[in-house]
Design a protein that fits this description.
Layout (H helix, E strand, L loop, with lengths): L1 H8 L7 E3 L8 E7 L5 E6 L8 E6 L5 E5 L3 E4 L17 E4 L4 E5 L3 E7 L4 E7 L1
Antiparallel strand pairs: 1-2, 2-3, 3-4, 5-8, 6-7, 8-9, 9-10
Length: 128
Amino acid sequence: MLLIALAIFAPKMPALVRADFDGDGRMDIARVATDGRQGYRLIVTRAADPDHPVTVHRMRSIRYFYIATARPGTYRSACDKGYGPDRAPCAYRRVRVTANTLSFGYRESSDAVAVWNKRRFDVVWLTD
């Protein structure tokens, strides 16, 4: 009975998302993986370098966590809206995203995008 309850109420691993996250014309894969006893990682396996998955975000819980592709547009960052430490410089005040930009966060709580800068993914929080 306990195992059934755990299976029903345990957070489900978000589905993987395929898109060209790094703009090279090939499909990359974003997914959540367990990180031993420390929680979970959002990782991207780039088609350009499949032997070296990139950790984009670490988390303790996957409850309400989602991954998707972002809606195209230009968005203000959470930093530009005044969230975060006082007087902290904003690496991104606004971010322009395409249909292939990785989006993730916690439903009804926070949203971020991972923008490929030709070397790594920069995480830009849009809401806090």
